[in-house]
Amino acid sequence: MTRRAVSVVILVLTLGLVSMQAAGGRSSITPGDLKDWLTFLSSDELEGRAVFTEGLGIAAGYIQGYLQAWGVKPGGDHGGYLQTVRVRGVKVVNHSTVTVRVGGESRTFKDGEGITFPRNVGAKRTLTIDRVEFAGYGLDVPGHMDLRGRTIEGAAVVFLGLNGPKDIDQQALRRVVTGRSRHAIDQLRAAAAIGPANPNTSGQGRGGASASDGAGGRGGGAPRPAPDFTTTQRLDQPISPAVTATDAFLDFLFSKAPVRYDELKKKASDRDPLPSFRLDGVTLTFNIDADYQLVRTQLTENVIGIVEGSDPQLKSTYVVVGAHYDHVGYADAELTDGRRPAAPGRVTAGATEDRIWNGADDDGSGTVAVMALARAFAQGVHPKRSVLFIWHAGEERGLYGSRYFADYPTVPLDKIVAQLNIDMIGRNRDDKKSEANTVYLVGSDRISTELDKVSRDANRSLQPPLKIDYEMNDPADPEQVYYRSDHYSYASKGIPIIFFTTGLHPDYHANTDDVSKIEFPKLTRVTQLVYETALRVANLDHPPVRDNKGPRAGKGTP
Ligand SMILES: [Zn+2]
């Protein structure tokens, strides 16, 4: 080989490397590609991408084709890009009980007789709790910090008042009031939560899934028993009990308390201030014992790709970046008297003819963002850690895909150092022009203060930086969005998360969430923020520290 030939080879190799670099990295995330992909994914041909439909399958194939072309490694089942998600319909016979010991007296209450368990109580076990805290209304909202600052971890929390106190806006804080058990158990690590039974709805709505939920299998054959609940989670894991109690139970529970139940009940129904105190000498024993029978399994798919890390040690650890690629589908009923019956979402005035909910922002925007991120990492310089990209199925029906992955992960869950979730990043909140440079971060500081700090650093690398708003990270957020997208499936396993969103708008879950309304330059910049955040986390020499200090950033945070 002549000297000239060698230098030509070197030149070609150099050019090759340069063009490979140019193909990836942050600058590869451009409005043009995002728009091309989203135009297809939110077209009518994809039928609104409802779970268990052809439209969602076409979307999965579309994403997988690109992953292959970009050299992203498969991260699903059997060496492929797809992970089959099993959506199980379950019938339950619940024998669970609670035994209450007050001083020397003890009484046992069965499920449905004084106490009501959720339909899914998890694995069989016995749980004894000797610290019982009465927490008034059980709220942590401005003016009512009933729990915050008290030691709740490991305790049973009892609260009253179906409607909350009279000085809170009952309508606005409806989700906060109905989420009290979850707040105590998931955020403050209570061992159990006991709330008041609603006499008007007792026996209903406790499982979250109606009998018709998911009924959509091919017809014919013998009738099948209706499931009591639908889940993609394992049934052999413990779940902290969140129960509702009738007067008979509460009367006994408070029988040696400093304030009698009758008095508390009167105050709660008048929505007057309630005291809070420890119930001394009270022990609760939950005997959790349910028999589950699978009556149906429906199948859908997560799409998963991996870009391998460059560090020989750290590449066995992962940053997970995800979005949900499903939406709510289409109306199969015909127009009746100018109305659209059985619509899967809201019908925008003047758009009654439109029968397809295209979900361009929700979550087409996140879907294409994660595509751009997969290509940026695959074709750019690989960070030390591996990055796993996941497009979750069935988020709209109850976080199906992410709950499944968190219980049946394709990489070890304890090797996931953080999860970044993108859901609706292509619009301005409430269509306000003043929101043009704003992105909302939710949950970023709740499990790892360090992760939040990393995201702020990442934002400073953008020119100009985005305005980060923490309003929706407030525990009193009326929409409670922290619990409402796929990141929560990871957070509930203790994994630090960030949820990136640009907020709700009039086309949210409406048949007019169309690609024509997407702000592509903004979508590009928010995707670049996720890129810079993922890059920094993937290059950290230690996993983001899990200090679990809970939300400190919230409404009013600059
Ligand atoms: Zn969504």
Distance between the termini: 64 Å
Strand pairing plus helix content: what structural class? alpha/beta
Summarize model confidence as the mean pLDDT: 92
Radius of gyration: 25 Å
The biggest beta sheet, please? 10 strands, mixed
Low-confidence stretches: 4-21, 203-217
Total count of strands: 24
Number of helices: 12
Secondary-structure blueprint:
Blueprint lengths: L2 H21 L7 H11 L12 H17 L2 E2 L7 E13 L2 E6 L2 E6 L4 E2 L8 E5 L2 E3 L5 E2 L2 E2 L10 E3 L15 H5 L1 H8 L4 E5 L32 E3 L10 E4 L1 H7 L7 H10 L6 E2 L3 E7 L1 E18 L10 E7 L4 E2 L25 E2 L2 H20 L6 E7 L7 H8 L8 E7 L15 E5 L6 H12 L6 E3 L17 H5 L5 E5 L18 H20 L19
Parallel strand pairs: 7-10, 10-11, 11-13, 17-20, 17-21, 21-24, 22-23
Antiparallel strand pairs: 1-16, 2-12, 2-16, 3-4, 3-15, 5-13, 6-15, 7-14, 8-9, 16-20, 18-19, 22-24
Helix pairs in contact: 2-8, 2-12, 3-8, 8-12, 10-12
Q: How would you portray this structure in words?
A:
- The N and C termini lie far apart (about 65 Å).
- The strands form five sheets. Strands 1, 2, 12, 16, 17, 20, 21, 22, 23 and 24 form a ten-stranded mixed beta sheet that branches.
- By secondary structure, the chain is of the alpha/beta class.
- α2 packs across α8 (about 360-380).
- It is about 25% helix and about 20% strand.
- The structure holds zinc ion.
